[in-house]
Specification:
The protein is α+β, with helices and mostly antiparallel strands. The chain is built from nine helices and 34 strands. The strands form eight sheets. It has an eight-stranded mixed β-barrel with strand order 1-2-3-4-5-6-7-8, surrounded by five helices. Strands 9, 15, 16, 18, 22, 23 and 27 form a seven-stranded antiparallel β-sheet that branches. A six-stranded mixed β-sheet has the order 14-17-24-19-20-21, with helices on one face.
C-alpha cells in the first residue's frame, strides 16, 4: 500500500444512479442512495460506493446486518468493477451506523480491498472520511484515531475538505510510512475548503505538498459549470496550470511503442479520417480521448509570439482535434513548444516518426527530440519539415546535434492542405525523453497557398500551422489488418418500426469478432451505414451514388444503433466496421468487415 511519492486524485464526474446489488450480477436501478462517481488517480478509475440520507441508512442496515452480508456485497462490488473494467472503489458511508455494526463495516471494507486486489491486480479501495469507529457521522478532516481503523484495512483515505493548515502534517504523522496514502480533500467550488478553491486551489496544494501527503481534488468541472471567462478552453488551461505550477506534475509518455496521439479531448465539432471529414456533427465521447500535449512554451527570443492551443474547430487530420500554432514569428528565430516528456528506451532498430501538418505561406513545423543515456552525452535532434535541405541544415546546425530531413513527404490527393512527413532515426542505447514542436519560417516572399492553389502574399511575421497527429513506431511494425473475411459480424436484437412518410426505423446491436478467436489489440472501430435503394422502383436512367454515413465509434466489439431512419424505397442497409490500429492507421472501407440487413415491413 505504501508509495514513495505524493499523488493527486480528482473527481471527474458524478452520475446520479441508484444501485441494488443482489447475489446475482443482475443490477436494478432503484434509488439515489448509491451513486457511481468516477475518480481518476493517475490513470486509475475508481467507482464510488456511497450511502447517504435516510435511504442510505436503511440500505446500510441491510448491508451490515451480518458479516456474511458484508462479504457478499463486497464480492459483488469487486465483480462489478472487474466486469466493467474500472480499478477499484471509493467507499463513502455518509450515514451514522449502530456501533454494534462497526465490526461488520470493517469486514466489508477489508473484504472489498482483498477481493479487489485478487480480481483486479493493482486496484485500489479508498475510504472516505465520514463515519467514525464509534458509528457517528462525524467528519474528522484528518487521519486520526477515529478513522484510522478503516485506513489500516484499505488502500488509503480521502480526507474531508474542511481541514486546517496543520492537519496534513498531523495526518502524515499518524499514517507513518503510508503518509502518501492520505489524500487531503480540496473542493474546487471553495465550500469551506482550505485556501478557498477556485483560482486559489493551488494554496491548498502547496500546503499538502509541503507536508508530504497526497491530494484529492473534488469537482475540477467548476471551470465549466460556472462558465469561467473568457472561454472554457482558456480557463481550463489556466486552472490546470495552477496545479502544475504547484506540484510540477506531468505524465511520462511515450513509454512503449507504438505511440499515437491526434490530440482528441473526447469532444468536438467534427470527425475526420486521414484528412477527410466524415462527420460535421458535434460529439462527446470521453473514450475517444487521446494523449494530450504538455503545453508549456519556450522561445529563443521575444520576437516569437505564438499561441499554442488544442483546436477543436478547425478540420482535423484524424478524429476531432488539432494542435494549432498561431501568431507572429520573425524569420531568424524559431519557436519551441513542449509536447510530450517520455521514458522510451530505444533498441537497435530504427524508430519511425510520422506526423501531419497543415500550414499557411512560409510557416513550417518540425519536431525536436531529446535523448539521454547513462553512458553517453545527451543529444538533441531536429526532425525538420519539408523544404530546402541545405538552407535547413545551415539554419539549425548550431542548435541541434543532428538535423534530419523527412525521407518521405506526402500530400493527400483528396485533402492537399495536409502534408504527411515521415522520418526515421536510430539511437540504440538512448532514451527518448522530450518531444517539442518547432515552428520556423522560410525567407518571406510571395508564396503559393497549398489549399487554394494560387499565389498569395503573407505578412513576413504571420505564422499559422496545425499539427494533426503524431505516430511513433518501430520500422518492423506494420498496420496490416485482418481481411474482411476473417471477421464474423452479426446483428442482435433487430427491431424495425414505422416512421414518418413511409420510412422505417431500425434498432440493432452490431457485434463482431475474429473467426480464429484470437484477440487483437485494436483500440477502436468506426461504424458506418450505407442504404441501398430498391432497384425495382428506381427511376430509369437514374444514377445511384451510395454514400456511407458515419454513425459513431466503438472501443469494444459491439455497437448499438438506435432509431436509424431508413427512408422509403430502401431495400437494405449495410453496416461497415472500420478497424483502427494502435499506430492510428485505419483499414480501407472497401476492405473492412460489414453486414447487410434487409429492410423489414412496409
Amino acid at each position: 500500500m505504501c508509495s514513495c511519492i505524493s499523488r493527486i486524485l480528482w473527481l471527474l464526474c458524478r452520475l446520479p444512479v441508484g444501485l441494488t446489488l443482489p447475489t446475482s450480477m443482475e443490477l436494478r436501478l432503484v434509488t439515489y442512495s448509491f451513486s457511481i462517481e468516477l475518480y481518476f488517480i493517475y490513470y486509475k478509475v475508481l467507482g464510488t460506493f456511497i450511502m447517504e440520507w435516510d435511504e442510505g441508512k436503511f440500505l446500510a442496515n441491510k448491508l451490515l446486518s451480518s458479516k456474511d452480508s458484508a462479504k457478499m456485497y463486497a464480492e459483488r462490488l469487486s465483480e462489478l468493477a472487474a466486469a466493467l473494467g474500472f480499478d477499484g472503489w471509493l467507499v463513502n458511508m455518509e450515514v451514522s451506523v449502530d456501533v454494534g455494526q462497526i465490526p461488520n463495516l470493517e469486514e466489508f471494507v477489508s473484504h472489498l480491498t482483498q477481493s479487489m486486489h485478487s480480481l483486479v491486480p493493482g486496484s485500489l479501495v479508498i475510504w472516505y472520511d465520514s463515519v467514525t469507529i464509534d458509528g457517528n457521522l462525524n467528519w474528522q478532516d484528518q487521519l486520526n484515531e477515529k478513522n484510522k481503523a478503516f485506513f489500516d484495512i484499505s488502500d488509503g483515505i480521502f480526507v474531508n475538505y474542511t481541514w486546517k493548515e496543520n492537519y496534513p502534517k498531523q495526518s502524515a504523522e499518524v499514517a507513518g510510512d503510508r503518509k502518501f496514502d492520505v489524500y487531503m480533500g480540496i473542493d474546487v467550488f471553495g465550500r469551506n475548503t482550505y485556501g478557498g478553491g477556485q483560482w486559489t486551489t493551488n494554496l491548498a496544494l502547496d500546503v499538502i505538498k509541503r507536508d508530504n501527503v497526497s491530494a484529492a481534488i473534488f469537482a475540477p468541472g467548476w471551470v465549466y459549470e460556472t462558465k469561467q471567462l473568457p472561454d472554457f478552453q482558456t480557463a481550463q488551461n489556466r486552472w490546470w496550470g495552477l496545479v502544475e505550477r504547484s506540484w510540477d506534475i506531468s505524465q511520462n509518455y511515450p513509454l512503449t511503442l507504438p505511440f499515437y496521439s491526434n490530440f482528441d479531448q473526447g469532444h468536438g465539432y467534427h470527425i475526420s479520417v486521414d484528412g477527410k471529414q466524415i462527420s460535421q456533427t458535434p460529439w462527446n465521447n470521453n473514450s475517444s480521448q487521446s494523449f494530450q500535449p504538455l503545453l508549456e512554451f519556450f522561445g529563443e527570443s521575444t520576437a516569437g509570439n505564438l499561441e499554442v492551443v488544442v483546436d477543436l474547430k478547425e478540420p482535423s487530420y484524424n478524429g476531432g482535434g488539432n494542435l494549432a500554432f498561431n501568431g507572429t514569428l520573425d524569420d531568424d528565430i524559431h519557436f519551441s513548444a513542449r509536447l510530450f516528456e517520455g521514458k522510451l528506451q530505444l533498441a537497435d532498430s530504427p524508430v519511425h516518426f510520422t506526423f501531419s501538418v497543415k500550414s499557411n505561406g512560409s510557416s513550417l513545423l518540425g519536431l525536436s527530440l531529446e535523448f539521454t543515456s547513462a553512458v553517453r552525452k545527451q543529444k538533441s535532434v531536429l526532425l525538420a519539415s519539408w523544404g530546402d535541405s541545405l538552407m535547413t541544415m545551415t539554419r539549425f546546425v548550431r542548435h541541434f546535434d543532428n538535423v534530419i530531413m523527412p525521407h518521405r513527404v506526402t500530400k493527400l490527393e483528396t485533402e492537399p492542405s495536409w502534408v504527411i512527413l515521415e522520418s526515421s532515426i536510430a539511437m540504440e542505447g538512448y532514451m527518448l525523453t522530450k518531444i517539442h514542436a518547432v515552428c520556423y519560417k522560410l525567407r518571406p516572399e510571395v508564396h503559393k497557398s497549398e489549399s487554394q492553389g494560387k499565389t498569395m502574399a503573407f505578412s513576413p511575421a504571420e505564422y499559422h500551422a496545425v499539427l494533426g497527429h503524431l505516430a511513433i513506431d518501430s520500422r518492423t511494425l506494420n498496420s496490416d489488418f485482418p481481411p474482411s473475411t476473417s471477421w464474423l459480424v452479426d446483428g442482435n436484437y433487430i427491431e424495425w418500426s414505422s416512421g414518418s412518410h413511409g420510412s422505417r426505423k431500425l434498432n440493432v446491436k452490431l457485434v463482431w469478432k475474429l473467426k480464429d478467436g484470437k484477440t487483437h489489440l485494436f483500440p477502436k472501430y468506426y461504424i458506418y451505414v450505407k442504404k441501398q435503394p430498391d432497384l425495382s422502383i428506381a427511376e430509369p436512367n437514374g444514377s445511384l451514388q451510395l454514400v456511407q454515413e458515419y454513425l459513431g465509434v466503438a472501443e469494444v466489439e459491439a455497437f448499438y444503433v438506435s432509431d436509424l431512419v431508413v427512408s422509403s424505397g430502401t431495400s437494405s442497409v449495410k453496416f461497415i466496421i472500420q478497424v483502427c490500429s494502435l499506430d492510428g492507421a485505419f483499414q480501407k472501407l472497401e476492405e473492412s468487415p460489414s453486414i447487410d440487413l434487409d429492410v423489414q415491413g412496409s
